[in-house]
Amino acid sequence: xxxxxxxxxxxxxxxxxxxxxxxxxxxxxxxxxxxxxxxxxxxxxxxxxxxxxxxxxxxxxxxxxxxxxxxxxxxxxxxxxxxxxxxxxxxxxxxxxxxxxxxxxxxxxxxxxxxxxxxxxxxxxxxxxxxxxxxxxxxxxxxxxxxxxxxxxxxxxxxxxxxxxxxxxxxxxxxxxxxxxxxxxxxxxxxxxxxxxxxxxxxxxxxxxxxxxxxxxxxxxxxxxxxxxxxxxxxxxxxxxxxxxxxxxxxxxxxxx
Length: 257
Prior knowledge:
- The chain is α/β, with parallel strands linked by helices.
- It has one domain: TIM Barrel (Alpha-Beta Barrel), CATH 3.20.20.
- It is about 45% helix and about 15% strand.
- The chain contains ten helices and eight strands.
- The chain has an eight-stranded parallel β-sheet.
- β6 (about 155), α6 and β7 form a beta-alpha-beta unit.
- The relative contact order is 0.15.
C-alpha cells in the first residue's frame, strides 16, 4: 500500500458542509480511504449519505459522543441505536463511544455515561462489530470495561500513558495516533515516549478532522494523516513506507469490511 488510512475523522460535521467534494478530492490524492464518524442522530444519517456518495473511499462509523450521553434524552440514544441496527450492513464500526472524565465530573453522570457505553458495547457484540473508543482521562477504566465484552476496540485519538497503550495492544486492541502528536512534536517527552512504546503492529493513524489541525489557522483534513505517518516513522526510526504499509493494513483488518 502506498497510501495511509485516516482511521477516524468527521467529514459529516457542519464544518465541512458544502465543501465535501473538494475535501474528498484533495484527500483521494493522499489517502487510501477515510473512516467518517457520526456521533449524533443527525451526523449518523449524514455519514451514511457521504459513504454512499463517495463509495469505496468514505466509510461510516456511528456512535454517540460520550460527554453528551449523561444529559441526552433517552429517545435520542434510542434513535442512534435504531440507526445502527437498520444500517448495520453499511457501517464499519460502532463508535465513537466510551468514557470522558475530563468533561464529566459528577458521579451520577459518570454512572449514566457508563450505562450508555455498555449498551453500545452489547450492541457491538450482537452485531459483531468493532468499536471506536473515546476515552479522555478515563483510558484505564474504559479498558477495564472492555474486558467484559467480546469486541475489538480502537482507542481513538489516544493521549494516555505509554504503559497503558502497551496494555491496550497486549489485550488485542488498537491505539490510534492523531495529529495532536504532530502539534506537540517529537521534542515533547510524552509524545515521544508514547510513539516509541506503541507497537507498530497495533497502531492506527487519524486526523480527527476538522479538529486538531497541525497547520495553524487551517481546518484539519484527512490528507494531514501523512503528518502522523511521518512523525511516527521519525520517532521509531523506520522507513515511512513501512509505517504506511503497517498502519493501513491494521486499519483494514480492524474494520474488516
